[in-house]
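User: Okay, second chain of the day. Same drill as before: sequence in, structure tokens out.
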Amino acid sequence: GAAMAAQMTDAHRRFLQVLMSHGIMEGSEARKLHRRCCEIHKVYYAHDKLDDFISTINSHLQPLFMQIRKGLSEGDGRAHYVLVNLAETEITKMASDYTENELELFRKTMDLIISSENGFASSTDILNLADQLKTKKMKKKEAEQVLKVFVEDKWLSERNGEYTLHTRCIIEMEQYILSNYQDMARKCYICHSLAIQSQVCDSCGIRMHLPCVRKCFRAQTDPRCPHCNDCWSCDIP
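Assistant: Same drill. Structure tokens below.
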């Protein structure tokens, strides 16, 4: 905006450094870190000013095509902060970390997850793709290792042999996914951000994140779709 950007202090720099080393940070962690950085560097601290603190950092990151973004975890709806590189799409960024057939496996996994009803792909289905890769086929054992690495690097998360996109991946790749999966990617009816893990209305097809479903139907004994008013057919999480 027209207002002069607030000054970057050592507290801001430290916050940025720690976030960079984590890649993603849960809201309560970020609030603790905000406080700690201000105390260490004797900078004025206000407990409810984390977002202002971050926008100061963002105004200085702008020329570097970087940005700290806030997003919600699809599982529990908690806020997370992620440092995002705007200069290159995330798939290009991944290209420097993984081989071509690993990337192809990731893309195919992403296809499965995004086209699925509930936002998960089973390890069986993913491993079946491993020996159909165009770049270079992968053995099951090798593919299992690669999936492990994607989980460690916070691109995927795994629960009982089912894989979904990690919160960090969703926050970083939202634009990429919305533009590359236009026929399949859906936004949540309630919060309007990309919905991967979600429930779908049987009648009209709208999607809602699980935390948004919980909020929406909190006080309702007879949950109805907020769009078409038909009975909500999924179990409320």
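The first strand starts at residue 24 and ends at 26.

User: Thanks, on to the next one.
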